[in-house]
TrEMBL record:
<comment type="similarity">
    <text>Belongs to the DHHC palmitoyltransferase family.</text>
</comment>
<feature type="transmembrane region" description="Helical">
    <location>
        <begin position="194"/>
        <end position="222"/>
    </location>
</feature>
<keyword id="KW-1133">Transmembrane helix</keyword>
<dbReference type="Pfam" id="PF01529">
    <property type="entry name" value="DHHC"/>
</dbReference>
<dbReference type="GO" id="GO:0005783">
    <property type="term" value="C:endoplasmic reticulum"/>
</dbReference>
<feature type="transmembrane region" description="Helical">
    <location>
        <begin position="40"/>
        <end position="59"/>
    </location>
</feature>
<protein>
    <recommendedName>
        <fullName>Palmitoyltransferase</fullName>
        <ecNumber>2.3.1.225</ecNumber>
    </recommendedName>
</protein>
<dbReference type="GO" id="GO:0019706">
    <property type="term" value="F:protein-cysteine S-palmitoyltransferase activity"/>
</dbReference>
<keyword id="KW-0808">Transferase</keyword>
<keyword id="KW-0449">Lipoprotein</keyword>
<keyword id="KW-0012">Acyltransferase</keyword>
<keyword id="KW-0472">Membrane</keyword>
<dbReference type="GO" id="GO:0005794">
    <property type="term" value="C:Golgi apparatus"/>
</dbReference>
<dbReference type="InterPro" id="IPR039859">
    <property type="entry name" value="PFA4/ZDH16/20/ERF2-like"/>
</dbReference>
<feature type="transmembrane region" description="Helical">
    <location>
        <begin position="157"/>
        <end position="182"/>
    </location>
</feature>
<feature type="domain" description="Palmitoyltransferase DHHC">
    <location>
        <begin position="115"/>
        <end position="230"/>
    </location>
</feature>
<keyword id="KW-0812">Transmembrane</keyword>
């Protein structure tokens, strides 16, 4: 399960580059010397890097909670019942031919928080939203993240939050190791401005952004809200 490849490829590639390039520099230039001082920091950094990569793959490839359109529900055996159970409404009718909402049914479903999706031509359960990038409705849709090439919804939100946390810790470990190594080899390092411009500066900006993003989602978790509910109340 991934999002639109044409739209998200550049952002997803940017995410991988932001992870791989600083880490590669860390293990190539700083790793051997740091290992001789103490293996603990390189080992912890490697574990954080592997965890970040694994969580990025899980976030990208996990179904965020896509609600199949009515025509698909009717074509696939037992899918209609599975969808009804997932949205918590077993009596909801599935009509693939309907193009507009039923006014009588709307009066019953509106107080329960249901909305009519004019794109998928079906009823959305509470907190589900349509993603224009992926072209589908997603359960508890938080937002579409081009950096992971997927929507963030009910089924992969935990992976996403863990990814942001692991990436923040990994970035701090990599930057810390580079700074420790650089301070110990300050007199030998003649390319400090270039290293700062290409590695330390951009990596610091990414880590700072991740920390801000993590703080924002921690606030959302405490409040029991989604990004869409905060930005588009």
């Amino acid at each position: 399960v991934t999002g639109p490849p044409v739209v998200d490829t550049q952002f997803n590639l940017c995410a991988w580059v932001s992870i791989v390039v600083p880490s590669a520099y860390y293990f190539w230039a700083c790793g051997p010397d740091l290992w001789r001082r103490s293996p603990l920091l390189p080992v912890c950094t490697a574990l954080l890097l592997l965890t970040t990569v694994l969580l990025l793959l899980l976030t990208s490839c996990t179904d965020p909670g896509i609600i199949p359109r009515p025509v698909m529900q009717l074509l696939v055996e037992d899918l209609e019942e599975e969808v009804r159970e997932a949205i918590g409404c077993r009596d909801l009718p599935t009509d693939a031919s309907r193009t507009e909402r039923d006014p009588d049914l709307w009066k019953q479903l509106e107080p329960l928080g249901f909305e009519w999706c004019r794109h998928c031509r079906m009823w959305q359960p509470p907190r589900a939203k349509h993603c224009r990038d992926c072209g589908c409705c997603v359960l508890r849709n938080d937002h579409h993240c081009p950096f992971v090439n997927n929507c963030i919804g009910q089924r992969n939100y935990a992976y996403f939050c863990a990814l942001v946390f692991a990436a923040s810790c990994s970035g701090i470990a990599v930057l810390g190791g580079i700074l420790v190594w650089s301070s110990a080899h300050d007199e030998e390092t003649s390319n400090w401005p270039l290293m700062f411009a290409l590695v330390i500066g951009p990596s610091s900006a990414v880590v700072l952004g991740l920390i801000v993003l993590l703080s924002f989602h921690l606030m959302l978790i405490v409040r029991g809200q989604t990004t869409r509910e905060v930005l588009r109340p």
